[in-house]
Request: fold
Amino acid sequence: MSKGTDSGRRDFFRQGAALLGGAALLGMVPPGVRNSAYASGSDAPELKEVKIGFMPLTDCASVVIASELGFDSQYGIKIVPRKEASWAAVRDKLLSGELHASHVLYSLVYDVQMGISGQKTDMAVLMTLNNNGQSIMLSSKLKEKGISDGHALEKRVAAKSREYIFAQTFPTGTHAMWLYYWMAAHGIDPFRDVKTITIPPPGMVANMRMGHMDGFCAGEPWGSVAIREKIGFAVASTQDIWKDHPEKVLGTTQDFVDRYPNTARAMVMALLDASRFIDAMANRPRVAQIIAGKNYVDAPRDAIEKRMLGEYENGLGKTWKDPDYMKFHREGEVNFPYLSDGMWFLTQLRRWGLLREDPDYLAVARKVNKIELYREAASQVKVAVPNDPMRSSTLLDGKIWDGKDPGAYTEGFEIRA
Reply:
């Protein structure tokens, strides 16, 4: 790849991409009764069985719980969770129709919408599944050399004593964007100064153990597992980069929404109920037990449960109760598909040269994020909907993102393509 050029960066991303959800609620009303009128009238789902993909990550919980605990049956559908091996497989199966929808990286949906790493296809974000809860990890071998934070890493990388390698889970995915943002905030150009590779989430721990990379960004529980096995330590959590950041979404194609609008709405309703159940802290141990199983995340239950309860450790001797642990509902604040969230990912795709020119950020987000469909679903399950489809946040480097001037925001980064 010719570093620093648009064509080189786009080739890198194309090559990399080719490699590869309360207890009281259930107790109050029997499944199938609460919204039976909704599911049997003109709004009845066109499909009775829906195949929803997921990757083995803690934030797949709403998909799994909706199916396992019967939230789906209340709305006339049966969710069949489909475990996938890579985010590229998720993308390809969504496009082929093998999956009806999926737990998917937010920015991957926008990648496909813009035709960055493959076939350009109109996509749909039906709802956000979670905020927070991803990890940026460094190898324990770096700790042995005195590197325990971003500033120390920047000094070592600048010395150019060797090539440093970092992994993300999909070239245009959220984990890539968090990793690049964190690096750039510490003066490291993620394309010129280091090498980045693509590894599916469950492979991160094994590859770090074998010395294939110096660090990675991935979703839980794989950061927690790396700490548990003493092969890595957490240099940052993604909520350190952006408190309450958007992460995974329920994504599908526009064609699916056009063909099966009632089914799409039923899926959102089921996952909203599941998300509300998961966010009750008393339910989280049970949720962790379910998703830890081999059919789902296939990881130690305590590695999942501790961070779901906000019990954090960084592998450097520090433990704390993190108030910004992974959230799945937060009275609907998590699940609303804010236009500004989708626009932010577009700014980062532009920042790193994946988009050759500024798109119409707002128009693209309005097309992809199905706010009206979400409002309809939320009203049925009595979930509050924010009045404003834009929100404002201050990120790690002090920059404020509010969606008002995305072009200027993108141009304002010192380190960019």
